[in-house]
């Protein structure tokens, strides 16, 4: 098994997008605090239409106001070429574009078909490359769709083949609504392998999925401090896997992340105050296993 | 990997013991509802001193009032010979006695040393056997102690050797405060193997631990419907792994449990109403992965 894992912290984007809006300065403080934990990558903002996702309407202000740590790689998520233009102009070097394996989910999320998104991505990639930035394609609903049910791994594989042919630099599989399980991770990765996995912990299998993926050689994972970000289709359900729970398990296994767990828990406490609700992270509640009574 | 797993439902005992007391008739209704889910084993009550654990003061009334399903094996937990006598008199055929691998935890939990508990267990086993019942020794704090920290696997192995020599029929390892991780499961099971594992999900690793244990050939697990039962040392932290989360993952892997997941979720909803707080079970909140929007 690998001796190191690279974690991308996604609370500022995927986390906050699924919470009630918080002030710009609170976002900046959260990102700056995360930048000091040792985490190597942060998904900072998304450039989406403010009517679609008002939580991200201040993306330019957040990016301009935060302190850029030279040891951290910051990325922005975009839904289409228009968003990619904004991310380029803002100076992002790593741009993620999302497309759903499920057509119904893509229409609900991006208001167009998966095929139309793929055409747009094909046009977007050279524009991003011209600016010297990279494109990661995040395949949402890779492990299942809340509207269509199971997604055939071969459909995901076809989509990956298409975007790779169009020049995508990296591929991530998103477990958008927590439908991944150890079995589904094995099934999909037997068919096609991503660079990075993005799991939610909607049904308790978050870290079991990570364990399965580690066993299959995956070494890059998304996670959200405090587990912030819920599931939009299941009120009250947990969101992304909590970064501190992931780090806690990995460090215990002797797998390095570069992250200071104590600092990270302090950021989770701060995030909980900002969000204003009790977060679902066990390591936030109980501390590391080595914390004695 | 195994094709079937045997789950012991522990909500009526380990779950309720760590919640505010509920009425006797609610306990009876919970056990009767669980008995109809297809689960093969239920830890129904414990015979402990009512001053120590007032939540279990009505153990005799619960056992007398519930409907015994002939397809379910019911067990009682006891802390000592006195409790075992009560369980015997009540007619239990399966008796669990608890002892902590950590001396400090044993003193806090049972008000005596681990060595004294072991002597008592040695005296208790023949009495239980005379009544035609079996004794399972549950080794609490097998994966760590909230007062002492890490527990050496060789200490657990010595304890197991002792109680097996004294006639224990079965051994369970209890992850009393959720200190188990995949790494700790591997470390301990490399040294000594139990018949059954009892995990908490205090730090998000509950199902990851199960996955690791399955990989090592373990086929019996405790779980608590709705994940009821908290961690006494970490207010607000999750308790036992939720039975419906365990069943959901196992069935998805093609591993049979005999349990009807839909019925089980209905019982979890009922348990949540009785307990009167939002339970930490993801499958209770979001439903199975196949539940569409």
Automatic annotation (TrEMBL), chains A, B:
GO terms for biological process: ketone body biosynthetic process; L-leucine catabolic process. One of its GO terms (molecular function) is metal ion binding. The keyword Metal-binding applies. Transmembrane segments: none annotated. Keywords: Lyase, Metal-binding. It comes from the Bacteria. InterPro entries: Aldolase_TIM, HMGL, PYR_CT. Residues 5-265 form the Pyruvate carboxyltransferase domain. Signal peptide: none annotated. The keyword Lyase applies. Belongs to the HMG-CoA lyase family. This is Hydroxymethylglutaryl-CoA lyase. It comes from Mangrovihabitans endophyticus. The lineage of its organism: Bacteria, Bacillati, Actinomycetota, Actinomycetes, Micromonosporales.
């Amino acid at each position: 098994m690998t001796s190191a894992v690279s974690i991308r912290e996604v609370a500022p984007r995927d986390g906050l997008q699924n919470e009630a809006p918080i002030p710009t300065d609170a976002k900046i403080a959260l990102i700056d605090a995360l930048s000091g934990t040792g985490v190597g990558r942060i998904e900072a903002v998304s450039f989406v239409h403010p009517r679609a996702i008002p939580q991200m309407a201040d993306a330019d202000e957040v990016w301009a106001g935060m302190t850029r740590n030279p040891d951290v790689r910051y990325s922005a998520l975009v839904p289409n070429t228009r968003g990619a233009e904004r991310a380029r102009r803002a100076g992002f070097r790593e741009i993620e574009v999302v497309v759903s394996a499920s057509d119904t989910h893509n229409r609900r999320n991006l208001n167009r078909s998966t095929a139309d998104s793929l055409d747009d991505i094909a046009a977007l990639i050279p524009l991003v490359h011209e600016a010297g930035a990279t494109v990661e394609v995040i395949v949402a609903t890779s492990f299942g769709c809340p509207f269509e049910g199971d997604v055939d791994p071969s459909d995901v594989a076809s989509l990956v083949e298409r975007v790779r042919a169009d020049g995508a630099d990296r591929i991530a599989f998103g477990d958008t609504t927590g439908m991944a399980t150890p079995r589904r991770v094995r099934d999909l990765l037997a068919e096609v392998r991503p660079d990075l996995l993005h799991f939610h912990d909607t049904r308790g299998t978050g870290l079991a999925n990570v364990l399965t993926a580690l066993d299959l050689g995956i070494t890059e994972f998304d996670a959200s401090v405090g587990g912030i970000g819920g599931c939009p289709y299941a009120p009250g359900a947990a969101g992304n896997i909590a970064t501190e729970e992931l780090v806690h398990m990995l460090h215990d296994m002797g797998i390095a992340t570069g992250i200071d767990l104590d600092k990270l828990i302090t950021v989770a406490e701060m995030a909980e105050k900002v969000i204003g609700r009790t977060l679902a992270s066990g390591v936030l509640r109980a501390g590391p296993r080595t914390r004695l009574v």
